[in-house]
Amino acid sequence: MCRCCECLRCCGRREPRPRTVWLGHPEKREQRYPRNVINNQKYNFFTFLPGVLFNQFKYFFNLYFLLLACSQFVVEMRLGALYTYWVPLGFVLAVTVIREAAEEIRCYMRDKEVNSQIYSKLTARGTVKVKSSNIQVGDLIIVEKNQRVPADMIFLRTSEKNGSCFLRTDQLDGETDWKLRLPVTCTQRLPTASDLLQIRSYVYAEEPNIDIHNFVGTFTREDSDPPVNESLSIENTLWASTVIASGTVVGVVLYTGRELRSVMNTSNPRSKIGLFDLEVNCLTKILFGALVVVSLVMVALQHFAGRWYLQIIRFLLLFSNIIPISLRVNLDMGKIVYSWVIRRDSKIPGTVVRSSTIPEQLGRISYLLTDKTGTLTQNEMVFKRLHLGTVAYGLDSMDEVQSHIFSIYTQPQEPPAVKGLSLATKVRRTMSSRVHEAVKAIALCHNVTPVYESNGVTDQAEAERHYEDSCRVYQASSPDEVALVQWTESVGLTLVGRDQSSVQLRSPGGHILNFSILQIFPFTYESKRMGIIVRDESSGEITFYMKGADVVMAGIVQYNDWLEEECGNMAREGLRVLVVAKKSLTEEQYQDFEARYVQAKLSVHDRSLKVATVIESLEMEMELLCLTGVEDQLQTDVRPTLETLRNAGIKVWMLTGDKLETATCTAKNAHLVTRTQDIHIFRLVSNSHRASLKGPRLWDRRAVRSQLISSRHAACPGCVTFVPSGILCCFLTPVKHALLSCILPQVCLKYYEYEFMELACQCPAVVCCRCAPTQKAQIVRLLQERTGKLTCAVGDGGNDVSMIQEADCGVGVEGKEGKQASLAADFSITQFKHLGRLLMVHGRNSYKRSAALSQFVIHRSLCISTMQAVFSSVFYFASVPLYQGFLIIGYSTIYTMFPVFSLVLDKDVKSEVAMLYPELYKDLLKGRPLSYKTFLIWVLISIYQGSIIMYGALLLFESEFVHIVAISFTSLILTELLMVALTIQTWHWLMIVAELLSLSCYIASLVFLHEFIDVYFIATLSFLWKVTVITLVSCLPLYVLKYLRRRFSPPSYSKLTS
Description:
Layout lengths: L1 H8 L9 E4 L25 H10 L2 H12 L11 H33 L2 E6 L2 E6 L8 E4 L8 E7 L6 E4 L1 H4 L5 E3 L3 H4 L12 E5 L11 E5 L6 E5 L4 E2 L4 E2 L4 E7 L5 H4 L10 H27 L6 H11 L7 H19 L7 E2 L11 E6 L6 E11 L4 E2 L4 H13 L20 H14 L4 E4 L7 H7 L5 E4 L3 H12 L3 E5 L3 E5 L5 E10 L7 E8 L5 E7 L1 H4 L9 H10 L3 E10 L1 H15 L5 H10 L6 E12 L3 H10 L3 E5 L4 H10 L8 E5 L5 H4 L6 H18 L10 E6 L11 H9 L1 H10 L2 E5 L3 H15 L2 E6 L5 H6 L2 E5 L6 H5 L2 E3 L4 H41 L11 H7 L4 H5 L9 H6 L5 H4 L6 H25 L4 H23 L5 H17 L15 H28 L3 H6 L1
Parallel strand pairs: 15-27, 15-31, 27-30, 28-29, 29-30, 31-32, 32-33
Antiparallel strand pairs: 1-8, 2-3, 2-4, 4-13, 5-11, 5-13, 6-7, 6-12, 8-9, 9-10, 14-33, 16-17, 16-26, 18-19, 20-21, 21-22, 22-23, 23-24, 24-25, 25-26
Helix pairs in contact: 2-4, 4-10, 8-9, 8-28, 10-28, 11-12, 12-14, 17-18, 19-28, 22-24, 24-25, 28-33, 28-34, 33-34, 33-36, 34-35, 34-36
């Protein structure tokens, strides 16, 4: 229904098409564009009531009771007062509507907070304030540093002197690397931002699409001579949900609302129905079948005499208590209690329950799919290790590195960097010079830019002129880079300045070392390395520095016998390893390279291949300088939490937008991969040519199939059912064409779902890399469809919203990436470690309590239905109710409601025990607390007790029929109270209060029930002994059986509590 409502809201949408956007003139739009609003609500004002009612009446028993209540308007079918049917149904619906309305209002307020954020807009009247929801296509919006970009925009101007800005995209694609963005050259050259309104220019942009990594457009200025035309690419874009990391920017809005890249990568919110609710719905269908059978039997025993079809309907109404209408009320109220308990738990502070309809789902999770950045890790890099081959420096020995650097720059002679380094290949250098060369290479080979900000004492211009340390902030496209540069600063070689053509370092003695940047070769996912060619201004020496992953650098550096071994050792410690190398170039060598490089860049055909070939001509026989080890700090207690989840039988999948090497390091660091486990890497796209194919060809599909089969055999040689001890890493490589979002989903997940899932589900853990937001949701959906097990998705960024909403249970982590995932999730936590307690304690308790509550409510209804069946069969199969009016309503409400509902406070073990023994969680994965077996046991108990009570009352009553009602009803109430006491495993003071309160209410109400019960008879000794005997016969055998079972076949939890 929710999706239907969404379709109604979207009615009248046109197919997206390219657009022309005039700068600062939204009134010149060619078509109607959607409003720039964020909407995470399931309903709107018009669809709320129909949607909620539809979701309620698609439950079988709710629809059944609606038909039942409507049938009482027919005189021939009426068995009692209308209120006995309509009041319970109305109460059920009212509770549901109020709960849904409260959640919708909370969701509306959260969306309103985001949509009400204020931004500055350039207009002809100057700068005005505008809400995010009022931003239109064509508006010129000013976005400050650390402010969220409100819409998809083209970058026009920046306040940064270097003419660029950095962008944090972790909420969009999950990558922590900052992205460098460049403004349109024409608009950046304008004197002021207000001049943007004085020029006649427009942007021609492609139609809205889902691809967040590519963009095609042009910028045109018509009032210049000649007209200016610039091509636009992804480097000129500012997508919504990203955050400006440097300076103040001005952009023109291209896309808004549902046409945003971030929104198109987010699935629509849906109403989640818990597996427990579906199972209860199935049990009610079984009860309905029993109801029909009993009614037919009653009519058959009358030999279908007279108007037998009306008799069938009357019996259906008479035995309608077999399906308890109070079941839904009790379960819904129980969910509210569970949510309240979760919010009040002091050991998981800040936890918020945003969807109170599925707390039982937390108790049956089989697959946990988690994001990496900001969820498992803190996104804070720490430099841990420097390895020079013969010696390694850790955190405890960094002072030695600092002393080596200090000794180099405090010697009276010039630093080795100034002298001719041709002798370096002939003689063994001292340890100080080796350390110095390594540190200098790390300080130069990066894309970090130092930025100076005012600190209240020193203004920005003065700080930049004197390189004030207290005002300097490092900005880069990767936190790894920042960690490396911060480390070089800590040991004495400080990066103090950088622009497009030069780098400045400061030595321990305060001298400024100037280097000219001749060429930069940025890091790419294909090359897995970056390089830089610099010229030392003091000596004129040209040096080519390079750093990259060990898998590619091993074939570039000179032969050595320690690289592979030490890289493996550092990787096993969970460190992100980089290999650093250098090569000295003569002026002639560099000039020759530059000529070939420029020529290759001007090529029209195969430009990237020719450029790569020229660069590779330099990447030969490079001198290996060192290895660096950087650790991405894990969230607190991630390792024990993952260990707890594994011991509970939950398989953990890590879905991340980061590259394979980063994900592998984090998996090892978090102990997702143990030392005894192998890593099976599944790759599909091996080069850029195959990645750029227009579609999955036949040989690609064959390659996938062969890899799947070989991986499956490698993971489990010689067996099929044995679970292998391996980890599967799915490397999702994005392609460059908008037609394909990823090769792997199109080939593997589309054509070989069974083979892929068979392999993946055998592994104790799976790591999927380079996942787009929609691909994360696709993997979750595939798991649900292929395994039928419950999934839980955990994330903290906007790129995790689709996955969270698709999973059976979504958990959002409030962190550095904002609250978008938290607001869209069913449950919100502040730290990943809280997930263990949320599942092991609250999830387990919620499921076991609801299972006990639902079966006891069914038992309560079956007891009275059994008594009605016995009564009717004894009195010639008459369709006459045994209890009427207030008795039948009071039985399910004030007489037994409080003790039965108090089962939501019951628990079999203490929370400390549940956390200490996560194996207890495994029992829930099989659904044993609520199964056909336990259901059948409760049915047999109900039939036994109902029969004993009714036949006992018939045998022991003396004269008047009203005595049967008094004896049987009192015995029934006492039996239910005793059965609640039998079911409870850990007493709570509220349970005792509920038992005494219900008993007191019944005794007090006997005075007012003279219409149904003989008040004088219940005061006699005869009444008391008859009720006592019947109650003992109905309950005592069950108490004996429970004792024997606990004595000779105790459940697992009782062994821990004894």
